[in-house]
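Exam review. A common question shows you a sequence with its structure tokens and asks you to describe the fold in words. Practice with the pair below. Do the first one on your own.
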Amino acid sequence: MAIAKLALLTLLMVKIYADSPEECNTAIGVEKRDICEITSAESGTRDDEKTSVSCPDGYSIVDCMLVQGDILLSADGVEVTDQHCEGQRGSEDQHNMAGKGVKVKATCQRSDITNVVYVKTERVNYTKEENVDAELWCPPRYTMRTCLYFSGWNKIVSPNGLDTKTGKIMVVQNKCNMTIVSTHDKNNVRWFTLSAICTEMVGFLLSY
């Protein structure tokens, strides 16, 4: 049984939700929205090809998810890394994903009201016929907004609390955990990671 170590990546400032998300508009002279969304280009269709998206200046990522692809069919997963929401194509070509890449979507908030911490496990290794647990949690006073699954291998997980269409793992009592029930028949080591977005409100909105 292996427990993933918690790694604190970075601390940023963002704003709490105030209006409904729309596509981010970065044109000069356009008033910035409190929250907006931005969708990546489609990745390539070969194994391990990536796609990513980042927020405009003055915003930070508060949510990240797959919007095209499925971890059990065509995607390796999704993660928040270095201020990017990133997804990766898997090796499978099944059902309606044959010949298609993956896409991800980031939700961005303005950078002036909420502290945001991104946390990520180290790689959690496992081998043939080995069940492995990983757990991820936020620092004190922070609330986990999103927890994400990523691996170099798709279609091998037992989706316990995992939404395979978005790459999100269920958050329970301000933490998330993942149990891998290995089904591969090779002796080589495989791995996965969890990443999460944690927020702490430090101000108040004056209007909605």
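Now try the second one, then compare your answer with the model answer below.
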Amino acid sequence: MAEQQQQQIPILKLGTQGPEKQSLFPLMLQTELKRGGTKLAVRNKLYKSIIQKAKEILHSKMVKTGLTNKIEEKRVMVESLMASKREAAESVASLELLQMRRDELIDQLNSGIDGFQRLRALETLLMLELGLI
């Protein structure tokens, strides 16, 4: 009966860790003291385990910060890509306008050349009629 009562005793919970996480530190203290460890040895083990836990937390925070930085870099890259796409679309539109203007100027030049050729043909015809050629 005593064993069942001991098994039903919950492990002490630390308030800052939330209801899901349980602390084994009080249990560790009790077992080490029962094994004949001194309070100083138990304190040293507890201190080392706390330091190890702090290192693990720091490492996880650094990893999280690294991931946050990578996400920010990706966001900046996406914004840059979108800006490049907009600039490319504007460049294409500008190129199309320039090509249309070029085609208009070529048409004007061709019509000017056609007019000049007509004038030369008229001049030649006139010179023939006048007998100058």
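Model answer, second protein: The chain is about 80% helix and 0% strand. Residues 1-21 have pLDDT under 50 and may be disordered. Full marks require stating both points clearly.
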